[in-house]
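For the sake of transparency, this paper describes our internal protein records without simplification. Because each token names a local backbone shape, the row as a whole describes the fold. One such record is reproduced below, unchanged from the form in which we store it:
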Amino acid sequence: MRPAHIALAALVAAVWGVNFVVIEIGLDHFPPLLFSVLRFLAAALPAVFLVGPPKVAWKGIVGVGLALGVAKFGLLFTGMDLGAPAGLSSLILQIQAVFTALFAVVALGERPGKVKIAGMAVALAGIGVAAVDEGASGPLVGFALCIAAAACWGVSNVLTRKASPPDALNFMVWVSVVPILPLLVLSLLLEGPERDLAALRGLDWAGVGVILYVAWAVTIFGFGAWGWLLRRYPASSVAPFSLLVPVFGMSSAALFLGEGISPLRWCAAALLVGGVALTSLSRTGGTAAAPEPVGRAEARV
């Protein structure tokens, strides 16, 4: 990869890692489900009028929109709202690589090789260490919701691979349209119209900035740049940069939010990142999978 493109890949990882700190700030302004609604609304408009019509079947867009937008982000934002730390959340979500590999066995007929199985075992050990650390210092409910969010991400990755979108940005913009109405209904039912209206009435420049960051910087710039890189370089050259996401996530959470990183959490990070690296970068035995220009990208933020 050219030096400028290496810098671009690292920048995308940094944007995605810092995103967890921005989410934490956003949850001080909005209820979690309403925050998710605003994120996707800002990502979809006006971009949906600029990227052209969808380039894959609607069933793929709707499936990924529900799994990624409604389930994954709804669970992640709620888990963080219940106390899951930003840095730990950025780390835990990387277990999606294990869920993706497991779901691909069932849905795509893939047969993981020995290295990939070993990577999954190492990553799961990292989750166990993180659970012990979180059980001693934080709420396990938020931790569990982040794991559930990673599982939903795995589902969306498999659905994305089946859809095989040729244009990552076009796909993500149209996927962003799907969750808006379901999340709004859930927010009204679970968070209540009074709480939602109070948050919207209290909207300030900090709240606007948070929404624009998660919608434009993370979704539009992040996925657009990642898709651009994947069209020019092999996935094996680009994908390793995604392992920097929890590094940026944990360090930015420590810097801006004052989150401590215990020795157990460092151990969990080493196990998880190492296991995810083995799981994501090892070759799959048996049936070859279709290329996934978006799946690897969307699994990181």
